């Protein structure tokens, strides 16, 4: 498969030349294949948001370069083309809500794409359904009258309505209730399959990574320290905990069982797999 | 070591021998927050408004660790904002440490006792320097600035923000902002902490560390903790869990009692903690596991001997 994002020795520095200079990204190289579901993990302040803001040209490299869909993101003349293909849901997207109603807010992007009124309405309703908001009731409300989690859902809908080729979500499920999380992830995966889109998910939820991601990139202090399949990454438990990360809870349980000398598989990631392993263990001892 | 120093580390480390003067030792059964038939309606006027809470009765005991859970829009933040008199009841009443939140003169004293961490950390940034921001609440309490300075240093160290003391808060990462909001409240050393989804943007280690800090403050300093959260793994650690649904209490009780309501929780779109999900699945397969299982450690302890 071909690469859709090519990152070559990317470095970024905030407030260069001041006492508060922060090297937020340090010579990162990474190829992201078209149509993949990539999770980006890393401790607080490791550079995840800084990295993904380079993918739509919001930030430009201090050194190295980033190409998305063949476009050099530093090329200002290509910005519009870039924005047409790349949708970014910010970490605290509720700050981007500014219209009078949820409907007009979600319709903002599609309207700028020059769609007809009927097409716009269809896109808005579809996007609201994807995030679990009622297309009729919630759509009429002012974004400022929504709860924290509902506001977040509305903001995510605004980007989904654009149907971008590359969909970047920066901690989208923070603040969502368990069902909201599960449904959003399910819908994102459906969107990926249907549209052949590339998904880049920044998250602190290791269970989400285990369930959803095909590839995982791990950042620590602005450096890319691991990249691989979830099972490969989560087999490196000691390295992960050393940088403020962890295994999914079920994986941790099974590992501890193994340390107690129980004969269990070590590559378990999800609750379903953990249940299976323990059932096998109990079954064997009970016979 | 001076008195203030021993007090200082005492609160954060949870050393009961160095009781802070602001903390009143309380009797376990004393009610710290009493909510009686509380109703809250946003934009309340003749035309109506939006009813966010209906007929809530709840008593938070002094020294209790209470978790408030529930789906998006169920009224958690609205309820929490009544605990420090940010919102006033449309009906019923809320009494904090014996003070009615309706009486404007009580607001200052209530906010001195109840420290609040809001859901959105950006709404809490008040200063252009991290260390000043963390000091703001305590300075407003009229504490001597030497004392505040000491507390800020300790708290930023505990929470892992020391190196950002001279940075601008609005330029911090999401998780760093959330940590700063928590630090600002810890510096005030209130006898009650109300935290609205404080770990939503923290990394796994930061989430565990905050829970450990809250439990330590609660167990050894008798700090009353009200934690609003979507993480069921955090809820099982509480003394009591209250689940809201559509502005009402759907179920409340010990974690064991609440998480036994598997069907109700599923209906509300809530999830069991992973350990209970596994235990539940195993029972369905015909294995008999002890009913007390709540956490991964419980499963581990059981399997160790079986
Ligand atoms: N606009 C800015 N100016 C100066 N420093 C910044 C700015 N934005 C971020 N930083 C710093 O750069 C580093 C990386 O920040 P970034 O927001 O990319 O982290 P993150 O991995 O997304 O963290 P989190 O999980 O908390 O969201 C942090 O140390 C942060 O304080
Ligand atoms: N400022 C406001 N004006 C009008 N209605 C509001 C306002 N804030 C909240 N509401 C409404 O009150 C209800 C309860 O909101 P609240 O913020 O208390 O929910 P919550 O349980 O904290 O949800 P979340 O998990 O999403 O944070 C929701 O239906 C919401 O739409
Ligand atoms: Mg971030
Ligand atoms: Mg809320």
Question: Any chance you could write out the topology, listing elements then pairs?
Answer:
The complex is a heterodimer of chains A (287) and B (306).
Chain A: E1 3-14, E2 22-33, E3 37-42, H1 48-52, E4 63-68, E5 71-72, H2 79-85, E6 86-89, H3 102-112, H4 117-130, H5 137-140, H6 148-160, E7 166-170, H7 178-195, E8 198-202, H8 206-212, E9 215-220, E10 223-228, H9 230-233, H10 237-242, H11 249-259, H12 271-286
Parallel strand pairs in A: 3-8, 3-9, 6-7, 7-8
Antiparallel strand pairs in A: 1-2, 1-4, 4-5, 9-10
Helix pairs in contact in A: 3-4, 3-6, 4-6, 11-12
Chain B: H1 3-13, E1 31-45, E2 48-61, E3 65-69, H2 76-80, E4 91-96, E5 99-100, H3 107-113, E6 114-117, H4 130-140, H5 145-159, H6 174-188, E7 192-196, H7 204-221, E8 224-228, H8 232-235, E9 240-245, E10 248-253, H9 255-259, H10 262-267, H11 274-284, H12 296-304
Bound molecules: adenosine-5'-triphosphate (2 copies) and magnesium ion (2 copies).
Reading the helices and strands of chain B in chain order gives HEEEHEEHEHHHEHEHEEHHHH
Q: Which sequence of strands runs across the widest sheet of chain B?
A: 6-7-8-3-9-10
Uncertain parts of chain B? 1-8, 16-25
Question: SS-based structural class of chain A?
Answer: alpha/beta
Alpha plus pi helix count of chain B = 12
Give the count of structural domains of chain B: 1
State the low-pLDDT regions of chain A, or none: none
Total count of strands of chain B: 10
Overall residue-averaged pLDDT value of chain B: 91
> Which sheet architecture does the biggest sheet of chain B show?
6 strands, mixed
* Ligand catalogue: adenosine-5'-triphosphate, magnesium ion
Estimate percent helicity of chain B.
25-40%
Name the CATH superfamily assignment of chain B: P-loop containing nucleotide triphosphate hydrolases
Rounded Rg of chain B? 20 Å
Query: What CATH architecture of chain B would you give?
Result: 3-Layer(aba) Sandwich
């Amino acid at each position: 498969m071909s690469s859709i994002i090519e990152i070559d020795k990317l470095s970024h520095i905030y407030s260069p030349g001041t006492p508060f200079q922060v090297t937020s990204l340090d010579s990162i190289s990474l190829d992201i294949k078209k149509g993949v579901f990539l999770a980006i993990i890393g401790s607080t302040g490791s550079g995840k948001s800084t990295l993904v803001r380079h993918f739509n040209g919001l930030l430009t490299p201090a050194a190295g370069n980033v190409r998305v869909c063949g476009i050099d993101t530093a090329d200002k003349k290509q910005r519009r083309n870039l924005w047409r293909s790349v949708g970014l849901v910010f970490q605290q997207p509720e700050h981007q809500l500014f219209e009078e109603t949820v409907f007009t807010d979600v319709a903002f992007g599609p309207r700028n794409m020059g769609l007809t009124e009927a097409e716009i309405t269809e896109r808005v309703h579809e996007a609201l359904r994807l995030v679990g908001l009622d297309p009729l009731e919630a759509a009429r409300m002012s974004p400022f009258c929504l709860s924290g989690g509902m506001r977040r859902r509305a903001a995510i809908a605004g980007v989904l309505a654009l149907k971008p080729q590359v969909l970047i979500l920066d901690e989208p499920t923070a603040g969502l209730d368990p069902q909201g999380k599960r449904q959003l992830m399910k819908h994102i995966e459906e969107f990926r399959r249907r549209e052949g889109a590339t998904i880049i998910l920044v998250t602190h939820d290791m269970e989400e990574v285990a369930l959803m991601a095909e590839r995982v990139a791990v950042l620590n202090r602005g450096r890319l320290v691991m990249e691989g399949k979830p099972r490969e990454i989560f087999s490196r438990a000691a390295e992960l905990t050393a940088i403020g990360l962890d295994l999914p809870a079920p994986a941790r349980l099974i590992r501890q069982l193994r340390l107690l000398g129980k004969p269990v598989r070590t590559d378990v990631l999800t609750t379903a797999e953990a249940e299976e392993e323990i059932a096998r263990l109990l079954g064997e001892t009970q016979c | 070591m001076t008195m203030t120093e021993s007090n200082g580390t005492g609160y954060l480390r949870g050393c009961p021998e160095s009781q802070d003067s602001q903390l009143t030792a309380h009797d376990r059964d004393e009610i710290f927050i009493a909510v009686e038939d509380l109703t809250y309606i946003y934009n309340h006027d003749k035309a109506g408004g939006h009813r966010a809470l209906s007929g809530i009765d709840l008593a938070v005991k002094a020294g209790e660790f209470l978790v408030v859970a529930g789906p998006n829009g169920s009224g958690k933040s609205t309820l929490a904002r009544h605990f420090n008199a940010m919102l006033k009841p449309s009906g019923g009443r809320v009494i904090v440490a014996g003070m009615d939140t309706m009486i404007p003169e009580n607001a200052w004293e209530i906010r001195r006792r109840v420290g609040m961490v809001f859901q959105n950390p950006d709404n809490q940034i008040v200063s252009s320097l991290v260390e000043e921001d963390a000091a703001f609440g305590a300075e407003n309490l009229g504490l001597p600035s030497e004392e505040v300075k000491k507390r800020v240093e300790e708290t930023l160290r505990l929470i892992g923000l020391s190196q950002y003391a001279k940075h601008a808060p609005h330029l911090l990462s999401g998780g760093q902002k959330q940590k700063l909001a928590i630090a600002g409240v810890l510096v005030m050393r209130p006898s009650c902490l109300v935290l609205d989804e404080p770990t939503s943007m923290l990394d796994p280690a930061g989430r565990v560390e905050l829970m450990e800090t809250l439990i330590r403050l609660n167990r050894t300093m008798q700090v009353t903790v009200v934690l609003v959260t979507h993480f069921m793994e955090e809820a099982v650690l509480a003394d009591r869990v209250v689940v809201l649904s559509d502005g009402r209490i759907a179920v409340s009780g010990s974690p064991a009692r609440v998480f036994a309501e598997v069907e109700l929780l599923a209906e509300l779109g809530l999830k069991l903690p992973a350990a209970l999900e596994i235990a539940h699945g195993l029972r369905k397969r015909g294995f008999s596991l002890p009913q007390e299982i709540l956490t991964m450690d419980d499963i581990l302890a059981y399997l160790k001997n079986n």
